[in-house]
Specification:
With 136 residues, the chain is mainly beta. The chain has a single domain, classed as Jelly Rolls (Sandwich). It is globular and about 55 Å long.
Length: 136
């Protein structure tokens, strides 16, 4: 085990896991085309673990959705403020809508991945609603 202080940075598109141990992971998430307001078309959820986001720079809107009793989704949007910690509880549908200058820190359980997560493709009406909410 190294006894030196380590540090990481990441400047390319998308997410990179910069630190990981057996319990948790820290990632740096930057803008990527799929998270641009023009391209938002899905939500995801992690069924076993929470996920934390911290906005360092730029702008990010957290989209979230709960399933309505009669079917469909109730979508809402939270505009992130810098240096606040935002928790996405397990099973909550969510996505990030980001600007090109965004820099987020992401913290989650190291076991979180495609095996215990789902992606939900939005229909045209849901996409329009999500874009309208994110643009506010």
């Amino acid at each position: 085990m190294s006894m030196e202080i380590q540090n990481w940075e990441y400047g390319a598109e998308g997410l990179k896991r910069v630190y990981e141990n057996s319990k948790w992971m820290v990632g740096i998430k930057n803008w990527k085309p799929a998270n641009d307001i023009a391209n938002i078309d899905c939500l995801e959820r992690h069924n076993e673990t929470d996920e934390l986001f911290i906005l360092l720079a730029g702008s990010c809107v957290l989209l979230s959705a709960v399933e309505k009793a009669g079917g469909g989704l109730e979508i809402s949007a939270t505009r992130m403020e810098p240096r606040k910690v935002y928790n996405i509880p397990r099973t909550l549908w969510h996505n990030t809508v980001t600007t090109k200058d965004v820099k987020l820190i992401l913290v989650e359980d190291s076991s979180t991945g495609s095996a215990n997560s789902e992606v939900l493709q939005l229909d045209a009406e849901q996409i329009a609603a999500a874009k309208k909410l994110a643009a506010r």
